[in-house]
Design brief:
The protein is an alpha/beta fold and 301 residues long. It has helices at 3-20, 38-54, 78-87, 101-104, 110-118, 149-152, 158-168, 193-205, and strands spanning 25-30, 58-62, 95-98, 125-126, 132-133, 141-145, 174-178, 210-213, 219-223, 228-232, 253-258, 262-268, 272-281, 284-294.
Amino acid sequence: MNVARWFCLVALASVSLETGAQDTYTLLIFGDSGTGRQAQRQVAEAMSQACRQSSCDAALVLGDLIYPRGVKSVDDRRFTTRFEGPYEVVGPFPFWMSPGNHDHERAGSVEAEIAYGRSGRSERWRMPAAHYAVEGLPDWLHVYMLDTQPIARNSASPEQAQRAAAALCGKPGWRLLAGHHPVYSNGAHGDNDDVRRYLEPVLRDCGVQAYFAGHDHHQEHISTPSFEQFIQGAAAKLRGVDTATYAPDFAITQRFARSTLGFAIAAFTERAMDVRFFAAEHGQAREIYRCRATVDAPACK
């Protein structure tokens, strides 16, 4: 082994040990972002402000990474205009990407998005596969990023659920899923029964405490009997969202819903989760909602 490679391995091991012992880990969370338009840039400015105050460690990006259709190759200039340019003010830290329906649209190549992450061209874009376990987290925090488009089309193989279960089931601390399509929504797209049926065994059997999704262009928090769901699809576009009152026997509660451009920041310790929603107004971050939960009682208060 040459000296340079030895030093590199030592440095990587040192970072891994440091992350494993970290007391707090903070995630910037947003979706439906890749327009390249002014609204995306204004939200990015607000993210930058909030992350400086909150010391963000990484981002989870919840699909529709590049609008209006998927890229064809790593040379597509929209990687620059719809991602690198807008987010050069944020971080740098890893942005863990999950594909959305627009990334698949019109023969879009999710493989090209994966290849872009592997190419070394970006210090932010991380996408080792279409679905994968996030790396470099503390040993009490576990996140699996989904590719929900085949799930929403009822064409997903069992492999994705099997890998998610292997990454989460039996793991200590926080077990989180993140992807594009939500299970429940009071926005334009509504609930998705195919996503619910596919993810239900993983959510239930692995004791997943929270699911983060986008697709509908608003901010919403819904509590279910077994997990908390947070919709963050308002990083560049907006649609309306209804205020919902569920029947008592449905055991689901809409805790917050607003059609406001913005994002979320979730701070985790080994025992606690603090999720905050932000409105992004003229490049300024304003907190509009907060919930706190513990690892053994994840229903936010």
